[in-house]
Specification:
The protein has 274 residues and is mainly alpha-helical. It contains 11 helices and 2 strands; from the N terminus they run H-H-H-H-H-H-H-H-H-E-E-H-H.
């Protein structure tokens, strides 16, 4: 399930839960002993409907307490960290590509060393972990490779910059987040074996399309090993480079190139993701 959809369903259940809880007697005895039929049955129906839509259950009941499941909090934390990482990547990488497109590689190379001087003038949400605009050889070599027509090398170099210089210190070196990433694959196995939380845990993959569920040749999986660790930079780089190779093959195939182009257009206008 897409993270944004999951957030919406969690929030919908929380809202229905709060509404129902607020309708209950405040006295502890009344909350526990009084028959539920004395409450508004429509509010109970609305909460039950919201629960059915939300695959992550609440650990509480309006009659007995207000504690929200730790699982929900952890899912929200992961979602926020992923959003933070994606935002930082965009803020770092997009201006570089735009500058290269407008001004060319030679002028970009001359200006890279001065980029750090803008650190106090730009929006940079990970400043406590990564200093903005530090000169990185991977960035310089990326655009030299593009200029030389070696696209495969440029992809590998930029991937290394993104994954190792930005995301590793910003996300994967954060102990709490790293521990959750280490358990992701194992959690997928538990979900399959036990049937618990079905619909939440899925194998880690990149989807090379505008859909969350794409054809088999448009998705690349991290691996089925339950001990795989997304926080490990070497495992993650191998995963990203497999995805880049697959994307390159799809671009060269006339049968799939038009599909990829359409997906990119849909994403560019805020659509397509489902």
């Amino acid at each position: 399930m897409h993270a944004a959809t999951l957030d919406q369903r969690i929030e919908a259940e929380k809202k229905a839960y709060r509404t129902l809880k607020d309708s209950q007697p405040k006295d502890l005895y009344e909350r526990i002993v009084v028959n539920r039929l004395r409450s508004d049955p429509e509010l109970w129906r609305q909460w039950d409907e919201a629960k059915q839509q939300n695959p992550v259950p609440l650990a509480s009941d309006p009659l007995s307490g207000d504690a929200i499941a730790l699982l929900q909090e952890e899912l929200q934390y992961v979602h926020e960290m992923l959003a933070l990482g994606n935002t930082a990547l965009f803020l770092d990488v997009y201006p570089l590509h735009r500058f290269f497109m407008v001004r060319g590689q030679q002028e970009l190379e001359r200006c890279l060393a001065d980029r750090n001087s803008l650190k106090n003038e730009v929006l940079w949400p990970i400043a406590d972990k990564v200093e903005f605009g530090m000169y990185r050889t991977e960035v310089s070599e990326t655009f030299k490779a593009i200029e030389a027509g070696d696209i495969a090398a440029s992809v590998e170099l930029m991937a290394a910059h993104e994954r190792l210089n930005i995301l590793q210190p910003a996300m994967y070196d954060v102990t709490h987040f790293a521990l959750l990433m280490q358990g992701t694959q194992a959690g997928d196995v538990v979900s399959v074996v036990t049937g618990l939380f079905t619909g939440i845990s899925e194998q880690i993959q990149l989807t090379l399309a505008s859909q969350c569920k794409a054809p088999g040749n448009q998705q690349v999986t991290f691996g089925r090993n339950p001990l795989a660790n997304l926080a490990d930079k070497d495992q993650r780089m191998a995963f990203v480079l497999r995805a880049a190779t697959q994307f390159n093959l799809l671009l060269k195939d006339p049968a799939t190139r038009s599909q990829l182009e359409q997906s990119i257009k849909e994403i560019s206008v805020g659509g397509g993701v489902k």
